[in-house]
Structure formats: structure tokens, C-alpha cells
User: What shape does this take?
Amino acid sequence: MEELIKQALVDSTLPFKGNNLFKISAVQGGCIHKAWRLDFTNNIQIFAKSNSITNFKVLKFEYESLMKLREYADDSFLEIPKPIKLCSIENQAILFLPWINFTNDDQFILGKGLALLHKFSHGANNQFGWAEDGFIGSSPQIKGWGSNWGEYFVNFRLKPQMKLASKWGFDINEYQTLFPTLEVFLNEHKPLPSLVHGDLWSGNIAVTNNKGCIFDPASYWADREVDIAMTKLFGGFAKEFYEGYYSTWPLPKNSESREDIYNLYHILNHANLFGGSYKSQAINLLNKI
Assistant: This one.
């Protein structure tokens, strides 16, 4: 793999060349891609993700999501890594990104930066969705557009995950009468599309040099509340994050009533990817809704 990385850089027109690279180190933590730190002789560090060429579309979606997020982020408060290069070489796909050093600053500025991202993109697109097939983890996140948010979320997010769940015994037919109710309920606050991160758990955020930082997105145009709901699903977000967000752009007072519905998407996805207790958690959440 190291030789393929060097070859990709040598063949590139970028300012750093493969022959300036003196160290490649494996980075732990990812469960989908292999990750690498690249150290160059001119004191530049680069982050690289690699996967089989069959997963090129996964990295392409990440590339496109990051570029779109950068269009609406205020870089005074929120840093979105700018992709350096996406390439395929032999049987591998490789995405090169800036190396980011994380710091222990509080998350107020992260919350503020996310709120500004949501606010600046609010209504900039007149439909919910995404133009190309995407991914949430390694699961498909299907393309398509809709002007009715409730219908979109049910048909493009919940139902596809429920259909995948049939492999472990989930029966979507048992919940057909629930869908119209959810569609109406999710439209009551009349959301407009905002560009969202889409997979906003604590492993995909950081603070660096007095800025918030988000990465590994699964973006689409959605009700901004989907991001905030997910921050509460697995923990890891400090109270300063919410203070920063709410002081910049508060959510509607009844937003908490929609959190379980939005997080059902992620619990179903985890049940489909990992099985285990996520299966019963998904069923219990559905019954609660």
C-alpha cells in the first residue's frame, strides 16, 4: 500500500511529490477505510484514506460532501478539511486530506460554527435530498429529491433502512400505518432545507486551533435538526457545544419531540451494519414513537 501511495503522489501535479515523502504511518480508528499519516521532508503532514477500488464511490461521496460543506462554512469558526486529491491506482482508491492536529479547546465554537453552516445554507436549495447515491458508514444513502420533508425522510431514509433490516427479520409491513403519521408530524414545523453533516457523532468532530472541525460527512439537504438529534444519540458533546449552537441559531421549542424519529435512521443503520443490541434498540424506539 505504501508504494501505491508514493506512486499516486509522484504522478500528481500537486506541490508535494512522492520523493519528498519520508514516512508513512498507519493510523488506527477507522472501521471502513485504512488510514495513513504521510510526513514530508518540508514539514507537511497529509492524511490519506485507502480502500478497495470497489469502494471508490464511498470516498467520492466523502470528497463531494466536504466540498459542498466548505461552500457554506464560516472558516473563522468551523474548519472543513479541503480534499487534496481523490484517485484510483491499480486496485485501490485513495483520498488525500490535510492532516489536522486536534486540541482540547471547549466546543462552544464548534456549536457556533455548525449553527452558522446550517443558517447560511438554510433555504439555499429548494428541495431536500442529494443528487448522487451516498453512504452512511458503508450503507447506501439513496439519491433523490423531494419538496415535502416528511415524505422525503420516510421514503428516502427510514424505508430503505427498514428494507435492509429484513435480512435480520424486520417486517416493514407492520409499520405501514405509522408512515403517514410521521410524514405529517415532521412537516408541522415547516422546515426548509439546510446542508447537514449527516453523521454527526463525537468520532466525526474535533476542535483545532480555536475552531470547530467536522469530517467524515454523509451530507444531504435536510431539516437541520437531524444533526443536533444525532449529537445526543451516542454522547460525547459538551454542554458548551449546545450553548454555542443555540446562542447562534436556536431550534424550535418542540424540536426534542422529533429526535427519536431522526435517530431511528441511525439506529436502524447500526442494526443493519453491526447487529447485536441495535436490533432490539431499533424495535423499542419504533414502539416508543
Q: What stands out?
A: The mean pLDDT is 92. The chain has nine helices and 14 strands.
